[in-house]
Each structure stands twice: as structure tokens, then as C-alpha cells.
Amino acid sequence: MLKGVASLVSRVRKLDPGHLRLGTQAPQSLAAQLDNQVSFESPRAISCTNENDPAKHEEKHEGLHYNLPLQDVKTVFPHGLPPRYAMQMKTFNEACLMVRKPALELLHYLKNTNFAHPAIRYVLYGEKGTGKTLSLCHIIHFCAKQDWLILHIPDAHLWVKNCRDLLQSTYNKQRFDQPLEASVWLKNFKTTNERFLSQIKIQEKYVWNKRESIEKGSSLGEVVEQGITRVRNATDAVGIVLKELKRQSSLGIFRLLVAVDGVNALWGRTTLKREDKSPIAPEELALIHNLRKMVRNDWNGGAIVLTLSQTGSLFKPRNACLPQELLGKVANYSPKEFESCIQYYMENSWLQHEKAHTEEGKKELLFLSNGNPGQLERLCAYL
Amino acid sequence: MAAPLVKALLRCSDLTLGVRSAALRFPGLTQVRWSRYSAEFRDPLIDKEYYRKPLAELTEEEKFDRELKKTQPIKAAPSAHTSSVFEDPVISKFINMMMKGGNKVLARSLMTQTLEAVKRKQFEKFHAAASEEQANIERNPYTIFHQALKNCEPVIGLAPILKGGRFYQVPVPLSDRRRRFLAMKWMITECREKKHRRMLMPEKLSKELLEAFHNQGPVVKRKHDLHKMAEANRALAHYRWW
Asked: B86 at the A interface (CB within 8 A)?
């Protein structure tokens, strides 16, 4: 698996030396700007900012929370948010994301992408609980606002483990289909990208079975509908969607963002077995095969953002998965970010314990969580 | 750190088993629980502020206390007893009572999940309520927990007294400690036994705590039943001799 990632990384290096150089210079400039403190306009502004458009997020907004309108959340993230964050959203009745350095860096690159070049791949990595998935959600929100077409796979690990029904693929005898996961994903894809589905037309004829086929020139929406209604053909529908999107994004009608969470699942092992108890390699799953083709950057007109995830990964020890590249390392909270997070919790009255408001309490929280956002969230949940 | 302490114990309290202080001895009652520490061992004091005071600020008694501590042996502090600001002796006791088979990690995580569940439920009620009622809704899970346990404590208890060959249930005053213990015990047994097979402990416990906070629910009912029994057996009160 590490070999695969290393080859990914080396491919990125070969193709985009320009961006790498920018990557090494950018942290220094960002570090200089970090010294400017944010002015204290009102109590709410200590941790929250009014700038709700991710396109306008600058370095001075770093460490502050911005509000995501709940309508947007329902359309853009039907399946993308981590479960604890979704619970928090439900309790507070609002969705607030913190603006952090890796996300800002990525936004900067995405704003300056040259769409004639092949798609650049970005990897977000870091230890468990540091905020990779939420940074990915920040990026997706930005791209949704900019009207890109979003291809978001919330957790690739869900596709390689605990699958109840595996069918042999009709398209290719060696591969296996996963109807449930494919249909669920198609439903969510439809919610996110409603307006694109009628605009994009497919350019080839596909035959589902003897009686049904899709003609050339019909819209992508029909393919998705077919996949949702006919669960048996859902995986093939997904394959068609991916293939068409890849082909057509080079034409420039729309821009494509491929966001995959837990990309290490694509190259690892699976827990699935055939009927004779022999294990299946990920290449033999049709969904994974198509996704891998998507992630290879032989198309242009968009970007690929990937996140490594240790939480769902199979057969790997706890401290695994560190690519050699420094771009996009999501670290624990800095003191300023920690303060901002605590302020946000206090504003929403989430920290109810009397001692939590004192200096001693804050120091203790910092010590117990070590600045890890995930741990801090779990600690504050019962305090 | 444990090894030299054990060796010290074996040296000084060789064959004498440590007993509880004499104040707790009742006539006719034998000590059931004993500890490996002998009588001169003092309890540990875990308090950051006490130890951080510089020498100049100490009063005469405190200076005497410090000198005395240098010579007297002190028992080892249990690992669950921390100097954290967030620690609560009531919650620690409850966690110990919930623990089964020494699995403190599980008991503690169940407790934290319960507190979180209580907090979330209260927040939902808070957001759903109108602004006049929002001031009345309590969102601090710790105050809810303490108030709920206080509401479950019985005021008077029953003891079986043997007189004339028969056991009579006699109403008897209870000490503070016994009352707290009964409240916690009833809460835990209620949550363990009377729940649906698939319902998890934090969910059930949070529901019971919220009901007890409002003086409703099965645990408070059990307390009232005990009070009624005591009231019914009022005539037997003179069987008590202490």
C-alpha cells in the first residue's frame, strides 16, 4: 500500500514541480502573517467570523469559525460529515467550521489552478482526530460555491468491508458488484449535483441487458435514475457516471472535484471473501476499479483531493500512513486555534462545568487533549 | 514505587492486621473489612493548592502538620483520585459502584457517555422551548446528577430487629453515608434490570436521571414506598434501642 502511495506521490512530483516550490515557500509567508492578531470587535467575533463565503477566507481568518447555512449542508453534504460532527450540528442547530491552515493553503492552490494541465492531486494526512475530514468538507463547500461538480466519496473504507451482498459483475466476469453501496452513493450524488445531471449528455450507447439500453445523447440524470431504481445495475451505473465525467471535464463545460476520504482503502486489503472463503483483492471490486481510474490524473479540468484515514483502515497498525510529502499535513490545534475552539464551545454554552471556564480548567483540557481536535471534542462533550 | 511501600508495610505491621479506628467499633459487632495498613497510617491529601503554598504563608498549625507528615507514614493514593479540577467524589463513587469485574475503563466511559447524553437531551429541550422557559431548563449534567441523587435519598429506613423469635421491620434513622449509598444502589439496579434488552446503559441512565431530577420515575417511587412502609410500622419504633 505504501508503494502505491509513493508512486502517487512521485507522479505528483514529476508533473507539478511548480506547485511544490510554492508549497515550500507558502508556509513561511503564512507563518509571518500569523503574528497579526485578530481585532476583538464583539464577543461573538472572538471565535466566529462573519465571512461565510469560503472563497474570501484569508489568513487573517485563521482560527475562526464560520457558519455554514443549513440548507447548503443538506445539499452539499448528504453523506460527507463525520458522525460526531453531525451530532454536534444537531445539538447546536448550526454548522460551524474552523478555518485552518492546510485548508487555506489548498484553497489558495485551487483558486490558481490552470485547467489545461492534468488534474493535480492533493493529499491531506495527519494523525487520528486532527481534522482531515472536516478540512476536506471545507474544500468541498468552497468548490460547491464556485459551482464545480463534486464527486465526493465519504469513506472509501465502507466499500471494502462489511458488504453483505456481492454479485458477480454483468459487465466483466472477473469483477464483483456492490449494489447497496453503489445505490446509496448514487442517491447522495444526485442530491449534491442536481443541476448538472440534466446538462451533461453521455456520448456513448450503453446496454444494460437484453431489453434496456441507454442511447447516446441522453442526460446523465437518466443513468443515475436507472442505477437507483435497478439496484442490480447500480455499480455499472456508477462506472458509467465516472467514465463520462472524466471524459467530459476535459472539454471545459464544468470543473470537476474528486474528493475521496480514506483513499488508503483503495490500495489495501479487503475483508470480503468469495463463497469459497478466498479473499478478494480490491482490483476485483468494480467500484474500486473505477475509482482508481478516476484518481489517476490523466484528465484535466479539475482537481483531486484525497484524505488518508487510519480510523477505518484494515490490517494496519495505529501509527501508519504518512506519505513523504509535506503538503497538507493537518496537525493538532495551535494555542490560538485551541483558544478559539474553547471560546466557541463557551459561546454555545457547551462547557457546562463551572471549573471549565477557569484558567486551570483550560490548561487541564489542553493537557488532556494535547491540542488534538477530536480528543478535545470528546472531552468537552461530558464536561 | 509500590514495592518499597509493600516492604515497609511488611516490616512494621508484621502480623498485626490493620483495623479501622476505634470510634467505629460498636459493641457486639465484629469488623468485617480490614486493610493492610496499620493504625498509624494517615490518609493521603491530594490538593495542589495546599502543597503550593510557600513556607512563609503557613500558619502555626499548618507548619506543625507539615512537620508531622515528614515522620508519619501515609497510605498510597488510589489511582482514580486525581488533583484534576474536574473531579467529583460523588461521580467517582458512582463509577466504582457501576464497575463490574474491575473494569474501571468501561464504567468510566459509560458514565461520560451518560453525562453527554443528559447534556444533549437538555440542549434539545432548550432549543425547542420558548425564551421564557429557557431560563428554567438546567443544562449542566453535573447539577442534574447531584440533584437527582439527592431526590432519591430516603430520609428514614427499615431495619430487621429480632424480638420474641420474630423479625420486625423497624423504622430507623439512616446516616448520610447510608442514604447516599442507597440512592446510588437503587439507581444502578433499576437501570440494570428494568430495561429493554437492546437499550444501552447510558441511554437508560440518562433517562432515569432526568426523571429523578424532576421527582418522578421509578427510583423516587421506591423511596416513597420505603417511607410509606416506615410510616406504617411507626408503632414498632420503640423496638430500637440505639
From this structure: yes
